[in-house]
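Posted in: Protein Modeling Q&A

I'm a second-year student putting together a small comparison for a lab meeting, and my supervisor asked me to include a predicted structure for Lysine--tRNA ligase. I've never done this before, so apologies if this is the wrong subforum. The sequence is pasted below exactly as I got it from our records. If anyone can share the structure token output, I'd also love a short note on what stands out.
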Amino acid sequence: MKDNMERNFSEQERVRREKYNDLVSKGRDPFINTVFDRTHTTTQLNEQFNKFSKEELQTKQTTKISTAGRIRLFREAGKKAIFANIQDQYGMIQIYTRQDELGDAEFEFFKDLDLGDIIGVTGSMMKTDHGELTIRVESFKLLSKALKPLPDKHSGIADIEERYRRRYVDLIVNPETRQTFIDRNKVIRTIQSTLDSKGYMEVETPILHQLRGGAAAKPFATHYNALDSEFYLRIAPELHLKRCIVGGFEGVYEIGRLFRNEGMSTRHNPEFTTIEIYVAYKNMDFVMNLCEELIRESAKAVNGKTTLTYGGHKLDLGKPFKKWHMVDAIKEITGVDFWKPMSYEEAKKIAKEKGVEVEKHQFSVGHIINLFFEEFVESTIIDPTFIYGHPREISPLAKLNEQDSRFTDRFELFIINREYANAFSELNNPIDQYERFLDQIKEAEAGNDEASDMDIDFVEALEYGMPPTAGIGIGIDRLVMLLTGAESIKDVILFPQMKPRG
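Accepted answer (user: helix_wrangler)
Welcome! Here is the predicted structure, written out as tokens:
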């Protein structure tokens, strides 16, 4: 086996390559094996045979099984027998080989295998004197040779950065990592099945956008050669999904990747997954209830219950979530009452007194209200809480509140200081929408690089008429973090973005 470039191999790697070259010279190249027919996975073996006693299994020796997996453990039982553990996606099972049953040559071949090699085995089921379900191997096939050794089973991957960079190794050696991504899949499938049962349709919308829109965030830009134009990786699918509602679909959703050219932290990854849902003839209150339902059902799918502990806090997701108007929350925490009518200068003076910095593009009382919430309230929220009543200026796509047009029918869900969802009764007035886009342009000109562009096509779509609609976006990654107890968003993304190695 020749490598295309010079590499520094460890002693173990050199030995494994020598073994591989020896296999090739003997006509046993494992990499040309293309298929192995399994009759059972490790889970199926346990389900079918573990209920039998050692004596009962001895009467079933004619039942032949085949399974495959990666060798994780070798243990010699004298000179003529070997126990090993093999691992597939579902778990591990013990296998037992004997020299007098495999024959001298095959037994020696088996003894020369390495931890990490992938084999297929055929045999019958037995139990040891200790009652452990075991495959008594009659024949085996080497399906893939591991040319690199796995990390030591006790120390694992000591460097957390390496766990993320070499997720494939992390998945092999850490069953809890595999379980996290099995649970992630359960969350997504639960959300899909719940929405499908309501008659909503899953759709796909573009990832490349000509305009920035659908959320306040800094985009990734790219050049589209065929059109000789600048495009953006989407920061939200919202405007396209609402076009679907204009077109006549009454319930649509999309689960997919979004891209925001912002910082990385334990809570943020520039590429992340959300679900956005839009339902015609509904309002903010409807999607509050839908949000609770989706989170509760996901919790039950992962943990079998709605109670959990995260970050030292005990939560009961089965209880109704708290509803707290943003202005009431600020008043309760800081004593500042933004219900009172005030000028921008008056609000800015209060902000200065409280040590809140107001930037040039934050040119309204609404912007200052949001700054107060982020500075003083967000960090106090522990139990699931719907913060609603966001100011008009920070909600360019939300419908105005009928009782007080300074605010919108919008909410965000917070749990233990983190935002999990953003939703609102959708703005469907094209004239108002056009004016809000103009306000976004003013913010951009004042230095806000997260402001949206003018999307005149979306305005024209609204001019054809969009029914009253409610929409919500839920962060899948953060929800999986909460339900699995993960401390970092990188723990729930299979291949997170990483800084280049120094």
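A couple of things worth pointing out for your meeting: The chain has a mean pLDDT of 93. DSSP finds 16 helices and 18 strands in the chain.
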